[in-house]
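Q: Got a minute? One more chain.
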Amino acid sequence: MTVELQVAQGWLTVCELSALIPGRGVAALLPDGSQAAVFVDRAGRAYAIGNQDPFTGAQVLSRGLVGAAAGRPFVASPLLKQRFDLETGRCLDDEEVAVRTYPVRTAATS
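A: Always. Here it is, folded:
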């Protein structure tokens, strides 16, 4: 199974699902030069958000700590610890801030 993100050009294969470790993220360079942070939870569901921390400008969200608050999966920035909802991109600590989210699917490899 591969993890694919929907970008402007269509579906982009990022990696094998088996390469992702629950609770840890990976950074993916996208065709437009931006980065996505890709995560998988313990149930095997994949998520992707923008990798840039909006508070510092650093490309570090893929290195953040994964958790859940009120049943919502989030990643906490490794720098200032703001939490970002992995489904919506909304910052749980500052409702005026959000990061981009990407549609994600898993596909069978041929």
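A: The first strand starts at residue 2 and ends at 7.
Q: Perfect, thanks.
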